[in-house]
Specification:
Elements (H helix, E strand, L loop, with lengths): L6 E7 L2 H11 L5 E7 L3 H9 L4 E5 L4 H14 L4 E6 L4 H9 L2 E6 L4 H12 L4 E2 L1 H14 L5 H8 L3 H10 L5 H8 L3 H15 L4 H10 L9
Parallel strand pairs: 1-2, 1-3, 3-4, 4-5, 5-6
Helix pairs in contact: 4-6, 6-11, 8-9, 8-10, 9-10
């Protein structure tokens, strides 16, 4: 990531001490600019409506019936911001649904400050970030559950070029744009152009959704656990 680029961050968490601790951690890094913090609910929605956040760090308590509607409200209020979920539970089904609703990073409880920094930097650059073990479990979970593509999906997949299929396959390994470019011996700009085309053809909006789509429809094979 460009050392001169600043990422504007908003922290949303129900506990004041956690919010302040996160602010303190993030303010130690010159690339992060914490624009504010708030508790979930109206305070967070009001803050996000006033601040142009690049990344929203979201920590929410409760099950899917509480967390997912709250996520929807936050992401709708800040549609251009990328979301990183701070997870104090281990629920792969909940994580999958959060990703499908727009979350691009998941940081598990017990992660180190460096892991948090890496997650925020990756997501700010448009990449997906999560613990490798979680990434593998989620991809295999999706592939096992829904292996058969529908006719409409077959048509979408048939529209992909050979190079686009190669990029989807490499992305499923969790590689960065630079790593994909190096693997396929093309430029990063070329990879980005292909991704734009792939997103448009398949009707997905980010890399994690793309990989989940590809696994569900059999475009790529599940990872080994």
């Amino acid at each position: 990531m460009d050392s001169h680029r600043h990422t504007t961050i908003v922290v949303v968490h129900q506990h004041t001490l956690v919010r302040r601790g996160l602010r303190s951690l993030l303010q130690e890094r010159s690339e992060f600019d914490v624009a504010g913090d708030a508790a979930p609910g109206e305070d967070a929605l009001s803050l996000l409506s006033r601040v142009e956040a690049d990344v929203v760090v979201i920590g929410l308590a409760g099950g899917a019936d509480v967390l997912l509607p709250a996520l929807n409200a936050l992401l709708k209020t800040a549609p251009s911001a990328k979301a990183v979920l701070l997870a104090d539970v281990r629920d792969d089904g909940l994580f999958e649904e959060a990703i499908m609703r727009g979350v691009q990073g998941i940081v598990l409880a017990g992660a180190s400050p460096e892991e948090l920094y890496n997650a925020l930097s990756a997501v700010a650059e448009g990449r997906v970030w999560m613990d490798p073990g979680l990434y593998s479990r989620l991809l295999n979970r999706v592939r096992r559950r829904d292996p058969q593509p529908r006719d409409s999906d077959q048509a979408k997949m048939a529209s992909l070029t050979r190079r686009e299929r190669e990029i989807v396959a490499v992305l499923s390994e969790g590689l960065t744009t630079k790593e994909v470019a190096e693997r396929l011996f093309v430029s990063e700009t070329t990879v980005r152009h292909h991704l734009t085309s792939i997103f448009s053809k398949l009707g997905v909006s980010n890399r994690m959704k793309l990989v989940l789509y590809a696994l569900r429809r059999g475009l790529v094979s599940p990872l080994q656990e």
